[in-house]
Design goal:
Keywords: Lipid biosynthesis, Lipid metabolism, NAD, Oxidoreductase, Phospholipid biosynthesis, Phospholipid metabolism. This protein is of the alpha/beta class and 356 residues long. 52% of the residues lie in helices and 13% in strands. It has 2 domains: 205 residues, NAD(P)-binding Rossmann-like Domain (Rossmann fold, 3-Layer(aba) Sandwich); 144 residues, N-(1-d-carboxylethyl)-l-norvaline Dehydrogenase, domain 2. The strands form 2 sheets. Strands 3-2-1-4-5-8-9-10 form an 8-stranded mixed beta sheet, sandwiched between helices. A two-stranded antiparallel sheet has the order 6-7.
């Protein structure tokens, strides 16, 4: 019997066992790690499900107490009602994980290590780990799924990622949204996608874990580039050319690191890139806009009070690309501005010569 056939049988058995376990329990327990806007939006989506218990960990103890008393997050998406019958809020991350079938990681990549401090591989054993993080682990330059595998021994087939195009603010407003759930194991992706599907969100499974995850990381870099050009006074015409070239850049990089057939014009890739590059809710675009208008990196970070994942991702992608030498003119331009203190106006003037 071929390796691929055996793998499909194994994946099917894993999926059946997981569904059976949940059926016995009568309730699917989903841990959400993180207290920001995207974590809050995910919690809102999950509260639409009738047989789900949400086990939510937040770092901020004042926010925990507020949620318990008033049933909304005072720091992010404060208009979203959080029904107490469906949500249990925890101060200890290990307690939130206990008994959970799925664990959703929704903290900035730079903070994931601290958020999971003290946990061991046993805390994740038998659970499906879902990354809602669109960034890379700084210094180690690892995708979150690879970091979870290396740090806690979580098999890749038990991990998946949430990709857009989707902004937390529109989820809060119940605007129609679309999510892609990607995994190396399509059964894993499908089993989780049904919990992220509700009256205002459609979630679809996809078997391209690395393609979706790398594209989600790189689109934040592109969004910063769009913000920088907007801050410098460039118009829509130039931004359209920039985004078109960025899609080619993402395609080159992803195809080099994980060569396989994929349709980059689909929602998980192009759609996510477009919404992050153009939306008023994009924090990476906002960060870039401030840089283009003359803010220093430090000043922009302080004023935003939120993490722009693209800032850290720019360095990680550049470090990673040393081994591959893929042509990444847009990423290089953003890196030169953010990390080499080069003039945004001069860098973008030069970038024009590399766009087609």
């Amino acid at each position: 019997m071929g390796t691929e056939v055996l793998k499909r049988i194994k994946n099917k058995i894993l999926g059946i066992e997981a569904e059976h376990m949940m059926a016995i329990e009568g309730l699917t327990k989903i841990a959400v790690i993180g207290g920001g806007s995207w974590a809050t939006a995910i919690v809102k989506i999950l509260t639409e499900q009738s047989h789900v218990q949400i086990r939510w960990w937040l770092r901020n103890k004042a926010d925990i107490q507020h949620i318990r008393q008033f049933h909304h997050n005072p720091s992010y998406l404060s208009d979203v009602h959080l029904p107490p019958k469906k949500i249990k809020v925890y101060e200890q991350v290990a307690e939130a994980l206990k008994g959970s079938h799925f664990v959703i990681l929704a903290v900035p990549a730079a903070f994931i290590r601290d958020s999971l401090a003290g946990l061991q591989a046993r805390h994740f054993h038998g659970k499906v780990i879902v990354s809602a993080i669109k960034g890379m682990i700084p210094q180690e330059n690892l995708l979150v799924t690879d970091w979870m595998a290396a740090t806690y021994g979580v098999p890749l087939e038990q991990t998946c990622v949430i990709a857009g195009p989707c902004h937390a603010e529109e989820v809060a407003l119940e605007k129609q949204s679309f999510l892609t759930i990607a995994s190396t194991n399509l059964s894993t992706a499908a089993s989780f996608a049904k919990y992220m599907t509700c009256r205002f969100v459609a979630a679809r499974p996809l078997g391209d874990l690395y393609g979706v995850e790398y594209a989600a990381v790189m689109k934040n870099i592109v969004a910063m580039a769009c913000g920088i050009t907007h801050g410098l006074g460039y118009g829509d015409n130039f931004q359209a050319v920039l985004v078109a070239n960025a899609m080619q850049e993402i395609g080159r990089f992803v195809s080099t690191l994980d060569p396989r057939e994929r349709e980059l014009t689909s929602s998980a890739y192009l759609g996510d890139l477009l919404v992050t590059s153009y939306s008023q809710f994009s924090r990476n675009r906002l960060f870039g806009n401030m840089i283009g208008r003359g803010y220093s990196v430090k000043a922009a970070q302080l004023e935003m009070k939120m993490i722009a994942e693209g800032y850290y991702a720019t360095r990680s992608i550049m470090e990673l690309n040393k081994a591959y030498a893929v042509s990444l003119p847009i990423t290089q331009a953003v890196h030169a501005i953010l990390y080499a203190d080069q003039s945004p106006a001069a860098v973008m003037e030069d970038l024009k010569n590399h766009l087609a």
